[in-house]
Amino acid sequence: MDKKGKDMYKKIVKLLYRSFDDDLNQKEKKQLAEALKNSEELRQEKEQILAQRQVVSKSATRSFKPFFAERVMSRIKTLGEKESSVDVFYESFKAVFRHVAIAGAVILLALFIYNLGIGEILSAEEAFYAVDVTMEEVLQLPLF
Amino acid sequence: MFSKDITPWNPGSQKLNDHELIINARNGDNDAFKELIKKYEQQVAATVIGMLGYCTEAEDIGQETFIRFYKSLHKFRGEAGVGTYLTRIAINLSLNELKRRKRQGKYYFTKSDDKIEDIPDTKGTFNQNNIKEIVQKAIQRLEPKFRAVVVLRLIDGYSSRETAQILNMPIGTVLSRLARGQMKLKAILKPLMGESYG
Question: A91, A120, A137, B79: which could join A133 in a potential S-S bond, CB 3.0 to 4.6 Å?
C-alpha cells in the first residue's frame, strides 16, 4: 500500500471507530460501506472493534464489598454527629462569651460614667483611661 | 422540580421512585437514602472501579460520591437523573484521585505505560475471570483522559452526547478520545490475547 493508500485506510478506520459512537452522514455511511465491501482487512478490523467493545463492557466490576450501603450510612451518621458536636461547642462558646461581653460592656460604661462624674475629663480616651500614660502613672492613679 | 413543598411519601404506597426517595431523604428519612445507595451502587462501582481499578481507594471514592450527594440533596433539582448526577460526582472524584496519585508519583503516565509489564501473561489459558482481570488492568494503563471516555461510554453505557455532558467537553473531543482510547487498548491487549483477539 502506498502512502496515499495508507492515509486513506487510516481515514476509513477513524470513520469506522466513529460509526460506533456517532451518526455518520449519508456520504460517510456510503464511503464506509463501500470500503467495508472491498476490504477484508477492514471487515476484520470491524469485528475486532466489536469484540473489544463487548469484552470491555463485560469486564466491569459492578459492586463494592458487601454492606456498602450500611458503611456509607454509618459514615453519614458519624459526619452528622461530628457536625452536631461542633455546633454544640459553638453554641456554648457563644453563650459564655455573650455573658463576658455584656459584663465587659457594663464595666466600661460604669467607668465612663464614673469618670464623667468626677468632672474635668472631656475626651473619650481620658474617660476610659486610654490616654498615653506610663506604667508608674497608672499605678499611682486612685481607682475609686 | 424537587421543591420542598411536595407532599412526602405515603407509607401505604408501593415502591418509591427516585423523586419520592429524594423528598423523603431530604426530610430526614435515612432509609430512603439507603435505598438510593442500593439502587445506584452498581453504577457508581462500575465508574469508580473502571477508573481506579479494584482497590481500597475505589471503595473510599464510592462512599465519598454518596456522601457528597447526601450533602447536596437540597441543591439537587433533578435536571439530570440521579444516576447521571452520581456518575458526574464519581468521575470527578476519580479524576482527582488520579491527579493525587500522579502528584505522589504513583502510576505516573507516560507513553511507555502502554507496556503490559504487570499484567499476567495468560496466553492460551484464558477463562472469563482472567479476561476480566486483564481487560481491567489494560484499562488502568490508559491515560485518564482516554480512560474516562472509555469507562463512561463502553462500561457505563452512556451515549457519546451524555459522556460529553458529564465530562463537560465538546462531543468531537469525546469521539476522538474514544477512538484513540480504543486503539490504545487494542495495542495493549493484542499481545496478551494473541491472534484470537486480533
Answer: A137
